[in-house]
Specification:
Helix content: 25-40%
Structural class: alpha/beta
Distance between the termini: 27 Å
Radius of gyration: 21 Å
Strand content: 15-25%
Number of helices: 15
Largest sheet: 8 strands, mixed
Length: 465
């Protein structure tokens, strides 16, 4: 057993004994057999009935109908439930854990850091064993999770998102300094806390990119277009020049990883493709020709589909002035999910977790259900949350913090990141928390009762069998 895994297991076991998530025996077992389960492997549209999975330390050793447990192994009888890979959220902001205005004006690093521990634990207890953080100072949280001090998913941090002046990451208020580009004190608290970096021109974007890589970014996040939740960048705008984007991409390639970009429209996406960007965050206001190009070039689209939901107008983060245009775009692009599947684009699940706990947590569970309406298939959504998302995480190459096994699949050699579910998510998405209620859902967080077992890295964090 690796030293890192031993430390994590021991630390988790100590907390688990108090919290009831696991027993000491489960936390330190070298082998675990989960038998009598129907397996969704992350890739197939059918369950593998009556199977078993043998786990050695933190990796899956074997999968099949006749798998046997070695002497001394912990044996868990799934009693016909569904065993599936842990879920993966491809786009979240664990450190932006209150409304933007509150974070900017009334919080500091201690506030957002303490709150992030609750964000992390609730992600894990909702079955998410990995989260790609697409903007924010999540490095310390990642280290604390990996060292066993905080319960949470595997984190893939981007560091501060990189934005041009007047871009989607420029969160200064009207009252902030900003009438002279020579004002050295012209910083938002978003920048001071490392949530974002405003950088202009090739030298500045190189410095911002290299700073994030120095701090441990697994991928780089750039703001390449306008947004709905920001006040001063119209959603139709294209941001960053080709030379700036290419500088960011080439520097990131030098570290063996890739760039993901906040983007919405065709012009911006095609400029990003020209520059070598690999993942397109949101990107649901694009035409079929652009989708075909993304698919041909092996890119990924990571959309939070609630962005084309009629309920979006009730989101408290949305500036009222942008609602008419957003509502019109949502109607115009209501079939974007079906078109992405039609053109065989790699699509990854995204909750775009941001804001207060109730708003963000309810949006995450609503997103699971809403995607089944946008893609017309539980199976497509489940792939987006497991195997396809795992492929995106692997694009980080040598910057991938977790290289011992695959994620998002149940197969030999994959990480033992597993969920045991009372029900079949291929038929009923509610068994993994999906709900058709968003702002009408209760604000108080409640565990998902049909998630009977949650395992990450071979360690049990929940077991209600």
């Amino acid at each position: 057993m690796k030293l890192k895994h031993k430390l994590t297991s021991l630390a988790v076991a100590a907390g688990a004994l108090l919290s009831g998530y696991a027993t000491a025996e489960e936390a330190k077992a070298s082998y675990t057999l989960i038998k009598n389960v129907n397996i969704f492997d992350g890739k197939s549209d059918k369950l593998n009935m009556g199977s078993a999975v043998l786990i050695e330390n933190n990796l899956i050793k074997s999968v099949g109908k006749d798998v046997k447990a070695p002497a001394g192994a912990t044996v868990i009888d799934g009693k016909g439930r569904t065993l599936m890979p842990g879920l993966i959220d491809g786009h979240a902001h664990v450190m932006i854990n209150d409304n933007f205005d509150v974070v900017e004006k009334n919080m500091d690093m201690v506030d957002i850091s303490i709150r992030s521990t609750r964000v992390a634990e609730r992600f894990l207890m909702d079955g998410f064993t990995a989260v790609r953080d697409m903007g924010g100072p999540a490095f310390g949280l990642q280290r604390s999770i990996d060292q066993g001090f905080v319960k949470g998913p595997r984190l893939y941090p981007s560091g501060g998102f990189i934005s041009q002046t007047s871009g989607h990451g420029d969160f200064r208020d009207r009252a902030d300094a900003g009438f002279s580009i020579k004002d050295a004190g012209d910083l938002s608290n978003f920048e001071r806390m490392g949530i974002g970096n405003v950088a202009n021109g090739v030298p500045e974007v190189l410095a911002a990119t290299r700073l994030n890589l120095r701090n441990g970014a697994s991928q780089i996040k750039v703001m390449a277009g306008g947004g709905g939740s920001s006040r001063f960048d119209p959603i139709d705008t294209t941001q960053y020049s080709v030379s700036e984007l290419k500088a960011i991409v080439e520097t990131t390639k030098d570290w063996g990883t890739y760039v993901g970009a906040h983007v919405f429209n065709d012009r911006s996406v095609n400029r990003l493709l020209d520059a070598g960007v690999k993942s397109f965050e949101h990107a649901f206001f694009i035409n079929e020709e652009t989708m075909q190009r993304i698919a041909k070039e092996g890119g990924f689209v990571v959309p939070q589909m609630w962005g084309v939901s009629p309920d979006l107008a009730r989101n408290p983060l949305m500036p009222a002035s942008k609602l008419p245009m957003i509502n019109e775009l949502a109607k115009q692009y209501k079939d974007v999910g079906r078109q992405l599947i039609k053109h065989k684009v790699n699509v990854v699940f995204a909750s775009d977790y941001v804001g207060t706990f109730p708003d963000a947590e309810r949006a995450r569970r609503y997103e699971i259900w809403w995607r089944t309406q946008c893609f017309d298939s539980n199976y497509e959504v489940l792939k987006q949350m497991t195997s396809v998302a795992g492929e995106l995480l692997a694009l980080s190459g040598p910057r991938n913090p977790y290289q011992a096994g695959k994620q998002g699949v149940i197969e030999a050699g994959a990480y033992a990141d597993l969920l045991l579910v009372d029900g079949n998510p291929l038929e009923d998405i509610t068994v993994i928390g999906g709900t058709d209620k968003w702002f009408d859902a209760p604000e108080e967080y409640k565990p998902i009762e049909t998630l009977n077992l949650i395992m990450k890295d071979g360690v049990l964090y929940k077991n209600t069998l």
